[in-house]
Amino acid sequence: MNKTAIKNFAVWARQKLIADITYKAGMLGITENGIAEKLPQSTNDLHFYDIGTKDYVEISGKEISQRSALVGAIKHKEKDIQNYKEVFQYVVEEVAYTWFNRLIAIRFMEVNDYLPSGVRVLSSENKAKNEPDFVTTPFDTDLEFTSYEQDKIIQLKDENKLDELFRMLFIKQCNKLHNILPELFEETDDYSELLLTISFTDKDDVVYRLVHDVDEDDFNIEKEGQVEIIGWMYQYYNIEPKAAVFARPNGKKISKEEIPAATQLFTPDWIVRYMVENSLGRIWVEGHSDNSLKDSWKYYIDEAEQEPEVMANLEKIKATYKALTPESIKIIDPCMGSGHILVYAFDVLMQIYESYGYTQRDAARSILENNIFGIDIDKRAYQLAYFAVMMKARQYNRRILTETIEPNLCFIKSSKEMSESALESLYYRTV
User: Fold this and answer.
1) Separation between Cα atoms, residue 69 and residue 240, nearest integer Å
2) How far apart (Å, rounded) are the C-alpha atoms in residues 162 and 160?
3) Left (φ > 0), alpha (ψ -120 to 50) or beta: where does 301 sit?
């Protein structure tokens, strides 16, 4: 895995998305300096805005409600952050990360042939072809188009407005993926859709650079790629926000919005393996006599020699492990980040289940339902952990995405208070 290329792309992509979204918002009369009001000549169906250019900007149809939603989101956030410029930057950052998340997720899915339609969205099976297969053959996908959309697709193709067609199809694909991965692909019929500016024809755009700068094999799990790349993308994407927090004068309080950037650190793979093999793995092998499992664990360490009294107590504890079945094991990561520990725990659990006689298909379903739990305070990290765990399950069970099974993962918006019902729900799901 070329982490230098991944790092360079993620840092650059964040800057590019923020710049493009800021520009698009400005073209709607919304900048870090304020929000333009619609001009008097506006009607219910057509709004005009003075953005300081020769001609007024006009928006119509769905864009009117989407712009109103954007204004509403900014004003709502001002209740928490009473500084308009900071609020504007926060909302732009959120939109940028929403689309970054989805681009990375779709890239992973298309490379591993996990997309339901099997048609690539960001690239082509033909490496010499720049136009994504999705744009070339949109009617070969699993998307359902209205008569209006069919005519629009044909019109955009005839007029060679391929980037506009690409954005239209990309948004529709994201909304379609909501059916199988609802926590990551939230429906985008809102202001985030209005601010999307991606292009596949521009060689200095996020889509082109993602496809060409990051080796496809880094995503391909049949080669050297792993779900781990999702976590590295997230880590590198947050390099600049993290640096900005630590560069501030001493004594300035870190806001709740800044906590993720200030505290998150991607756990290296060898540490994850050491932790999981010597906790989850140890509990299982100490209660079951199959040594073939631990022989495959590179970082598993046999127990050190102990005093007789200590050994006697340890044997009593080990005796309780003999009653364990794979379904009864619970593993929770209370600060799961992008899910790196849980993803490797999934692999170890799969080995345990298979040694117990399960098929991979049934084991993947049971692991999602019974074994893995995770919590984080950052919705972004939660969404990536959710995606990573579901992709790991898909690796073992090709039908898992259509079985409407949701992993036991969640994020907490605020820890100041928690209802009794929420605590009871968490308790009963982990016992």
Assistant:
1) 28
2) 5
3) beta
Supply the pLDDT for residue 91. Answer: 92
- Is residue 344 within 8 Å of 277, Cβ to Cβ? no
How much is the pLDDT for 264? 63
Instruction: Look up residue 258 and give its DSSP letter.
Output: T
Q: How many residues does this entry show for the chain?
A: 431
Whole-angstrom distance, CA of residue 171 vs CA of residue 99 = 10
SS3 per residue for 262-315 = HHCCCCCHHHHHHHHHHHHHHHHHHHCCCCHHHHCCCCCCCCCCCCHHHHHHHH
> Alpha-carbon distance 201 to 163, whole Å?
7
Q: Residue 174: what pLDDT?
A: 92
Q: Which of 293, 274, 431, 245 is nearest to 340 (CA)?
A: 274
- d(Cα 59, Cα 62) in Å, to the nearest integer? 9
What pLDDT is attached to residue 431?
A: 55
- Eight-state DSSP code of residue 58: E
Give the Cβ contact number of residue 379 at 10 Å.
Answer: 16
Q: Are 174 and 185 in contact (CB under 8 A)?
A: yes
Contacts of 172 (CB under 8 A, 6+ apart): 143, 149
Below-50 pLDDT ranges, the chain: none
Model pTM? 0.85
Q: Which residues, in sequence order, are CB contacts of 393 under 8 Å at separation 6+?
A: 346, 364, 365, 367, 368, 400, 405, 407
d(CA 295, CA 125): 39
In this prediction, residue 103 carries a pLDDT of: 95
